[in-house]
Amino acid sequence: MRVFISDLSSTFGEQLTTYCQEAEIQVVGAIASKSQQTLFKRKLQAYASSDTPDAVKEPVALLSDKPAWSKLIQKSTIVVVTSLANDTKLAMEMLKVHEKRDDNAGEDNENDEAVKRKFIAISSILTWSKNAAFAKEMSPEGPVPHHEDEFKTRKPARKYAELKTAETQILSANRSDELETYIVAAGLVYGGAQSNFHMVFRDAWMCPAKDLLVPSIPGGGVKDGMNLLPMISVYDLAMLTFRLASAPAPQPKNYLLAVDNASRSTTLRDVCCGLSILLGNGKVRDVAGNDEADELLVEEDDGLVAPLQLHLCFDTQEAVMNQLVAPDEWKHYETGLLGNLSFYVDDFIQAMDLRPLKTVVLGPPQVGKTRLSKKLARDYYLPYISMQSVVDEALPASEYEQQRQQAIEDGTEADENATPSAAPQDDGVDEELKKLRESLREWRSANKQLQELPEVLVIDLLRWKLCSASCRNQGYVLDGLPVTEEQASKVFAGLYKANGDGEDGNDGEGEGDNPADTESNDKAKGDDAEGAGEDGESGSLSLGKSRSKTLLAQLRPRRQVEAPNRVIVLHAPRALLESRAQQLSEEDAIATANTEAAFETRHAEFASQIEAIATFFETKTSVTAVDATNGIEVLELHLESEDAYRDAETFHDAIKNYLEQGGKTSKPPCNFHPTRDETRQMQREFEAKRRDDEVRARKQAAEQEEKDAVDQEARLAAERARLELIQREETELLEARAKPLRAYLMDTVLPALTEGMLEVVKVQPDDPIDYLAEFLFRKGREMDAAT
Fold first, then answer.
1. Is residue 348 domain-shared with residue 469, that is, in the same domain?
2. What residue spans carry the Acidic residues bias annotation (predicted)?
3. What does the alpha-carbon distance between residue 686 and residue 691 come to, in Å, rounded to a whole number?
4. How many domains are there within the chain?
5. What is the pTM of this model?
6. Domain, as residue range, for 180
7. Radius of gyration over alpha carbons of the chain, in Å?
8. Residues 179 and 285 in one domain
9. For 104-160, what is each residue's pLDDT tens digit?
10. Which of 232, 576, 580, 784 has a CA positioned 20 to 30 A from the CA of residue 768?
11. DSSP string for residues in 256-306
């Protein structure tokens, strides 16, 4: 037997491959990415089933290479299309190839002649989207769920009509003596990287400080996310498909429902509440109105939003899925997503490679810790933590200074040491934060510097911040802390014990209050007040709702100080550090504790403590569930000059490689950034920069053109002046050369010529020219005789 899987790289495909290979069934298939082809080939060939004589030498083909995957299908007994909804055309092409067996493939299938060929398409419950929530709303026993036998009555929304058509064509291709075709109508799939709940998992992980939005679009049949969601675990779906593929006998039905039993009582709101408890602040909110609903539909992929609007209830107790799979083989059929939410939160984090980068940056004063920390926080979208930022967050908006400023403006300045009233600002704040705020107010009332915070308060503040959901989900960058080995051991107390037990009740999961209890209770009261409500629910469905509320009440957020998994230590020569400190103004030096005395103290403390701190992180063992490490490999960088900070290989690339190591792929850790808003903001900034560059370029061009015109005019004026000078010089030269000639003419020629001209005038001869010539000839002889 050989099974062809249409997408080996999906979570479902990988899990189905595991089940098949454990049963020594050969697996071949296709993938979309060429870069993964070699990887999956090695995975398939790692099992014993690939060592048989009839094993396929090239078991992995690209989806873009139809001849290659067609040959694999022709050599396979069973074809599994992992997602009919994603590409119905591709599924129909694969069905046609599977129907027309290649005669040349006979040798590869001699051992499979007794096994009937099968074509299994994993479809979706979305083709029921226009059906009522229940098969019968009113009956003596209460609402009656839909059953598997009713599949011919399913009514899809227009967008899913093509999917239903493909299902019908596949079912029609069934031939009792040649080919068995099956449609597995899966509920909304949870688990792995292709979950239908990707959006709510992502939002809960990304924005833990915000109330989680329940993506229920107004105008539907059910308000506020109270719609029942038919669901199935990806691991249970893979088990069902494996049992169907390997079953020796034909099944009584060709259309199979795949919906877990817990879905009969689990709503969208239940899922969002549970995720908010485990990943966020424990609160949810509804879509504010049509504007926000429209924005949600525009911003998010329709394939993520539309499935969450389903309101359907199915009873699969007597369905084929429970005949194929034994009760003890199901992983989460009875308990469902809500009953195993902690597992699926960790599963989502691992599947999406959401590695929280919990980074500590240490170094002597003026080595560049803050600049590097802020850059890492910006580049990797991590919370930036310094002592100042934690104080500002614990006591927000400089509360004390604001009160004093208000008093000055009102003309009733309070006493200098007065403590501001905390009552209005502390409403809704947990007891731990209230205590921290009281301690901070006492410290501020004494007008002390940040460096004068009591050590106990420093540790409590850091532990409070490191327990936050944002640090748990995304990670953090801790700037310059801890400063001593003793402080490190107190901040991370209980996290490095071999048994993993914390020292106090706040460390570990399952401690403290459930922040969603009020939300759940309020909804519960509302549901009880409705009684039979719109759907007339009662009996077992009411018990199911109570079960969901009980499961929600049992969830507890993980309140644990998040230990670092990256430690960067910067070293630099003292002369360089002192030179930097000397360049600070007096005010900055005081504010940053870089006066001469403070610098000396801090530098000496770093030199005496850094080896012990590094050893502390390197030798301890973290026992956190998702990010377990056997100590931390500390990255120490020695920067001998200012040029070393600009060196890409020894500084920037070294830090980048260190932070991004240890993932499932060579890519940086996934953090869902940039978001669409951030992408649009970057696009707007890019466009604004482009427009500014264009305006600047046009301005520069105009200025250059004006300058060129002025330069050209100056060159022309200079040329004119040069020509005038040349002309004047030539004129003077000609005049100088003509002066002797004029003198000669005036002395010798002109007197005789003038006299001859006058004589011509007096005589007026008939031929004046001849007369003048004779006169001049005669005059010349007289002048010769005179000389």
1. no
2. 501-516
3. 9
4. 3
5. 0.80
6. 77-102+115-352
7. 44
8. yes
9. 454 455 445 556 799 999 999 999 999 999 988 777 777 899 999 999 999 999 999
10. 784
11. EEE--GGGGG-BHHHHHHHHHHHHSSS-EEE--SHHHHHHHHHHS-HHHHG
